[in-house]
Amino acid sequence: MLDSLVPVLPLQLSNTAILHQIRRDQVTDTCRANSVSSRKRRVLTPNDLKHLVVDEDHEMIYCYVPKVACTNWKRVMMVLTGRGKYSDPMEIPANEAHVSSNLKTLNQYSIPEINHRLKNYMKFLFVREPFERLVSAYRNKFTQKYNTSFHKRYGTKIVRRQRKNATQEALRKGDDVKFEEFVAYLIDPHTQREEPFNEHWQTVYSLCHPCHIHYDLIGKYETLEEDSNYILQLAGVGNYLKFPTYAKSTRTTDEMTTEFFQNISSEHQTQLYEVYKLDFLMFNYSVPSYLKLE
């Protein structure tokens, strides 16, 4: 008799739904286990919500995390919210996807409107192995010559603080930051007191507030295509919109990340792991095998 009450789902769909349930449970359990540290700020302010992109037409909210396919997801959101203005995400130039006025974020609404959307809209985010994301951010922001604004804003500060006998040119340009110096800057208590981390290396936990906002779906960079298309399917647009795929040869891999960590002392590795520990636990990433934790 009970069997008739079980909804019949296509097998693949039900497996995916179960997978997302497991991911949600993992977040809930981690939040509960770390409630002392994670519940310090009970009330979210509008400023906490500037990473949550809202799509009114499909009642979706996407929390974007830099270095986790966020350019392509912003492109997709522009197609979804553009009311026919765009049809192919990849026709939207990357820099246009990052123009803040092209997408509406949750902090632009009134408190009652925010609460209504958080309660009723489908909310999702994408995560990535924390140290792979960190190396990706470092490579993108500190090793590319064109990122002069980052070199000036952060590079000069990192060189000044972390490099003994820095040359005048290095202090002025900040364009040759070593990964070891970047790590030393991140674990320096002074950095944390001075200002919040830049969004490219801020924790997902701090950007998207998963202990306060109940996400319906947690996509992973490692299964980006399947998770993205599943979300588009649930949004009812999967028949005409697919997540853009492209093989990027410059992508940061696990092997590459291992290499970057070779020169980091075990003391610094341990301190850095502590900074990103909640992201590791919350999204079920194991401690990397290359780490020499103290």
From TrEMBL:
Q: Which UniProt keywords apply?
A: Carbohydrate metabolism, Glycoprotein, Golgi apparatus, Membrane, Signal-anchor, Transferase, Transmembrane, Transmembrane helix
Membrane-topology descriptor: Single-pass type II membrane protein
UniProt keyword annotation of Kinase present: no
The protein's Enzyme Commission number: 2.8.2.-
Keyword Membrane set for record? yes
Q: What is this enzyme's class at the first EC digit?
A: transferase
Q: What is its main location?
A: Golgi
Show which residues constitute the signal peptide: none
Q: Which Pfam families match?
A: Sulfotransfer_2
Which locations, inside or outside the cell, does it occupy? Answer: Golgi apparatus membrane
GO cellular component, as recorded: Golgi membrane
Enumerate the transmembrane spans. Answer: none
Q: Which GO terms describe its biological process?
A: carbohydrate biosynthetic process; proteoglycan biosynthetic process
Family membership noted in the UniProt record: Belongs to the sulfotransferase 2 family.
What protein name applies here? Carbohydrate sulfotransferase
Organism of derivation: Amazona aestiva (Blue-fronted Amazon parrot)
Q: What is the lineage of its organism?
A: Eukaryota, Metazoa, Chordata, Craniata, Vertebrata
